[in-house]
Design brief:
mainly beta, four-stranded antiparallel beta sheet, 2 helices
Length: 149
């Protein structure tokens, strides 16, 4: 069984997702009002080796403290939240400005039966969250040469 990612966000699109992004960016000239900017999920790469599954989440600009990884039954959820407040004031010009920035995302993956739920590790390095999920011993691919008699 393969590792499966949920399609979080708007799944009700008429065209293929790549086409939707092109049309949305064309028709929504203002990036601050674009729905696609508000619902942006990070890119994810999923790979499988003989001993484990690898999930890479591209989330630059975050700190490892911003992430939360949960396992509930066979669902692995990765979420992040970042809040920023920027205050600027100038007494000579008599103004105060406070800007708030908030961004978050959540991705959910269905782990296969071959995953060892007790052996999941995560590391955040160079803007990439690396999650490794070990395989159960009986699920690992054993290779050997078979003698012909």
């Amino acid at each position: 069984m393969a590792l499966v990612k949920f399609a979080n966000g708007n799944t009700n699109k008429t065209f293929k997702p790549a086409y939707n992004d092109v049309f949305e960016s064309f028709f929504n000239a203002d990036p601050f009002l674009s729905k696609s900017t508000l619902n942006r999920n990070p890119a994810v790469n999923i790979a499988e080796s003989d001993n484990e599954f690898h999930i890479e989440v591209a989330a630059p600009g975050l700190k490892k403290e911003d992430f939360k990884i949960n396992l509930e039954q066979n669902l692995l959820s990765v979420s992040a939240e970042r809040k920023e407040e920027k205050t600027e004031s100038d007494e000579a010009k008599k103004y105060n400005r406070i800007e708030y920035n908030y961004s978050s995302f959540m991705r959910t993956f269905t782990l296969p039966e071959t995953a060892d739920y007790a052996k999941i590790t995560a590391e955040y390095k160079d803007g990439i969250l690396l999650i490794s999920v070990a395989k159960k011993e009986e699920a690992k691919v054993l290779s050997r040469e078979i003698a012909i008699s």
